[in-house]
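Q: Structure tokens for this one, please.
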Amino acid sequence: MARRVEIPVAYLAGLAQGFALVTVPAASDLLTSPRGYAFTGVEYGALFVPMVAAAIAASAAGGVLALRWGLKRLFLIGVLLDVLAMALVALSAAFIGQHVPSYATLIVGMLALGGGFGSTLAALNSLAPGFFPDHAESALTALHTLLGTGTALAPLFVSAASGRGWWWIPALVAAVLFLLAIAGSTQSLHIEEPKPSLPAGGPFAFLRGLSRRLWAFLAVVALYGISETLCGNWAILYLHGERGLSARMAGLALAAFWAMVTLGRLAIAVASVWLPPRWIYRALPLLLLVSFLVVPLARTPAAAIAAFGFAGLACSAFLPLSVSFTEEQFPRLAELMAGELMAAYMIGYGIASFAVGPLVDSGAMRLASIYSGASVVAAVMIVMSFFLTRGART
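A: Here is the predicted structure, written as tokens:
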């Protein structure tokens, strides 16, 4: 009976976490508009620095914290940090036109969001397969599908709001997350599964002994983080600012990106029954390279939606497959490496979030050129994907 409550709480938390993660990027036009928060490109990119730092710390420590605190405490701390983050994002709308208080409020909110994202996801990635041990991969696919659904919904909601009136969106997410925290506090949120002991010599001592292949997995996931974030965080500013599309159409293109990330994961999960996953893994960076060459050519709403939707398909299953191949090749480090891979992803997220702003604001590069240049990142991922899946069983 308890599972009837625990499972919906965990999976709805995944949906809300995805929505929370994309709420601020989806409002990028409002954040940089002179009629909105009036942040510069550098200031907008810098908003994600505290989030990334906190997410890296929480993701990297997630496995160790789960061993010390238990999954329930880790989950509740993460969700409550998300509540604080969304409440502060909503509060920032009261300071539109007041640069310092609005920016300071958002900075603290993004710091909390990073900690919440890293902690909540670390707990959910263990809880979901623990709820359904005989169907662990399907359980994780369902979790990340709901996470992706939240990321796809956020741009649609935010694009429908404007000015100070947008505060109700993060406020609603905060309220939903708070209710989930209350519901979760009444449940055990525990899985009966043997846990590894903490590594000798400190929680991260095992990193010193990682093989080159494991470091390569971390590196390719970081490159993936750069690629995904270029689309997820900068699409609206590119399409609205450089291509002159309306903010609503730009929001639809961003929603198409996240929707195809989600639908692509489902489609590839089905396709992997007939196609070897290693070939899917090798094909996705090739599709990503093509998408980075196509995105700069998008000049109409239909072309923009199609281009970013294609980019979403190219991104879709690369991160889950990276986790899967790592666990297959290094089963003894599976639980700890899941957190480290998420930390690597957040490093890439941080690079793409912060580095782009100074390039655009200084006039050194336009976003169209940055997307074209990102094809080099995709090319490196192609080479690495062949190396990392050489000799894979699947």
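A few notes: The CA atoms of residues 127 and 191 lie 7 Å apart. The two ends are 37 Å apart (CA to CA).
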